[in-house]
């Protein structure tokens, strides 16, 4: 299924990254008319979809012929690929022969059904990984997962079967690269869109209206976690951190999430986390089920005193950069891509233990001058490394290399 795309203009980014815009315009001159197709599992929910809603339209504005296709598959397929996702992150999971056959069949069906006639096809994550087996072309694999320590039984069974069909493999960090991709791997961090509804500057009136609608008190400190309901996000630890702090500070905890179509496990975990939180009125569950969209997420991050991220595994965690962009420090566990966004003591704190996480947040909440300095540094880090323009430049360079 082809995704309908919004219109994005590269010149709009002159307000935040003028030099990079000029580089992009120059770099794209040799790629005019080049047909590029992105393929992933869902058009809604999760970081990959958000990235593509910005990157694909901007590729078009730069003169490429870019499009985005989404897999058509039954729920059973997404149950299987969620197991792949967890196994790639190290979970001790077995994949049955029938599950493997379903994965292969859905990939074959989609290779025949989707419009993959292009100069370059960019495959995102494991769900469409086998498609090059059934359709000739030049392929790039974009892995958005922390594969630093995968379950090699599952990893090898999947990756070795189709790896030779790919010209390049893009990973968030070099430490995620495993065989059979070491010869074609590129370190490739993602980005946030500073002009999107989720990251643009909101008026004070809009922010206050959203806070009132969701019963959030702007006069008390706010800890915000933005994460999917996924076992690796460890949201129970976030609640534990809040409960430690609640004994000393009158705080609120916002748990902000979206229910992704390709993650059936998320609904089960959502119910589990709700039960764990109990009836505390200062723990707010803010999801798309309650009408939360990108503007609302923006408002919640903007009004936050501090961001919290308790994930035990994290491919990158763009929600970190989103929070930092709004000049708020982040306290997080030093995992995956989190540790290249949060610089300990500069724009937040990296801690492992629940009590240490709580202590770091307490220090930020009770030291206004520290909080301001961390927040100032926070935006600076994102501007230098993790904006859309930097990400798009990396894509154009890789595409140019594969084509030539």
UniProtKB/TrEMBL annotation:
Which terms does the UniProt entry file under GO BP?
A: glucose metabolic process
> Which terms in the Gene Ontology molecular function aspect does this entry carry?
trehalose synthase activity
Q: What class of enzyme is it?
A: transferase
Q: What is its EC number?
A: 2.4.1.245
- Per its UniProt entry, which superkingdom is the organism in? Bacteria
Domain (Trehalose synthase N-terminal) ranges: 38-178
Question: Gene3D superfamilies, per this entry?
Answer: Glycogen Phosphorylase B
Keywords per UniProt = Carbohydrate metabolism, Glucose metabolism, Glycosyltransferase, Transferase
**UniProt domain Glycosyl transferase family: residue ranges:** 208-380
Give yes or no: UniProt keyword Glycosyltransferase: yes
The annotated subunit structure for this chain is: Homodimer.
Q: Which family does it belong to?
A: Belongs to the glycosyltransferase group 1 family. Glycosyltransferase 4 subfamily.
Protein name as annotated: Trehalose synthase
Organism, scientific name: Thermosipho japonicus
What is the taxonomic lineage of the source species? Answer: Bacteria, Thermotogati, Thermotogota, Thermotogae, Thermotogales
